[in-house]
Design goal:
- This protein is of the alpha/beta class.
- It has helices spanning 2-31, 37-41, 84-92, 113-120, 134-145, 187-191, 231-248; strands at 33-35, 49-52, 56-61, 68-73, 96-100, 126-132, 152-156, 173-179, 201-206, 216-218.
- An 8-stranded mixed beta sheet has the order 2-3-5-4-6-7-8-9, sandwiched between helices. Strands 1-10 form a two-stranded antiparallel ribbon.
- Helix 3 packs parallel to helix 7 (231-248).
- The chain is globular, with a radius of gyration of 19 Å.
């Protein structure tokens, strides 16, 4: 009897992780937000930006040597290639941009990836961390534990986890969020406002939606409203706000 019980327990110990991994793969495939054709075209190097693809997407300006870098954490089930149309203009403005792919496309499984990026590019003097959705939450977590290693933090339609309250942080922080036509953020963002520093900058995208923070096909995210602006227009606004803020953030060097 005891032998059968031990065999059963042993089988479960082996089977449960296999089933969990299988479920993650299934969930990822079912809900994956894949890059549009426009996003894939943005991954081609041109005269302004050199693009390298792999586990990380690395974009760098073809002229000058950047001293400030931008690390990007993607949303859950979001293929990092879908962010290329937003990231390429940022790189073209003079920044090294590194978008990090995550295990099973969930940033919660590698929230400290920014440390690997920082170590891979020691010539970059300052780093700004950008995160979308779940990637924003994990960027907030990273900033909570590594504030001194960052020059700034940008949330794209996201907020920090409650255990990583940034309200007392001295780090420059911006939140670009979707909004109603009058610019009001979703209620859940208003409810989490206390997790941000009082001087954090909030920029609304009136009529925008969550998944227009990239260029994606598919995905399992349920939007709160139909978009009132085009994806192209929303991304133009995100790029402009992000670049304006990057230029305003004072150098810590």
């Amino acid at each position: 009897m005891l032998k059968k019980l031990l065999l059963t327990v042993g089988a479960l110990v082996v089977l449960i992780p296999i089933l969990a991994i299988g479920w993650l793969y299934y969930s990822t495939e079912k809900n994956m937000a894949r890059p549009t054709d426009d996003a894939l075209q943005a991954l081609v190097s041109d005269t302004a930006v050199q693009v390298e693809t792999g586990d990380w997407i690395v974009m760098r300006p073809t002229t000058g040597e950047p001293t400030r870098g931008v690390i990007v954490y993607p949303g859950a089930n979001c293929d990092i290639r879908g962010y290329a149309p937003l990231l390429k203009p940022i790189a073209g403005a003079g920044y090294l941009v590194v978008a990090v792919s995550m295990p099973f496309d969930f940033a919660i499984f590698a929230p400290d990836s920014a440390t690997d990026v920082r170590e891979a590019y020691p010539f970059i003097e300052e780093w700004v961390l950008v995160g979308h959705s779940m990637g924003g939450a994990m960027a907030g977590r990273y900033a909570f534990h590594h504030e001194q290693e960052l020059a700034g933090l940008v949330f794209w339609d996201s907020y920090p986890p409650k255990p990583n309250d940034l309200s007392d942080s001295s780090l420059p922080i911006m939140h670009i969020h979707r909004g109603t036509l009058d610019g009001a953020p979703p209620q859940k963002f208003q409810d989490m406002r206390h997790l941000f520093p009082g001087d954090s900058r909030w920029v609304a995208i009136p009529g925008g939606i969550h998944m227009y923070f990239g260029s994606f096909n598919g995905g399992g995210y349920d939007e709160e409203w139909e978009p009132k602006i085009s994806r192209e227009r929303q991304q133009q606004m995100i790029i402009a706000a992000t670049l304006d803020w990057l230029q305003r953030v004072p150098s810590s060097m």
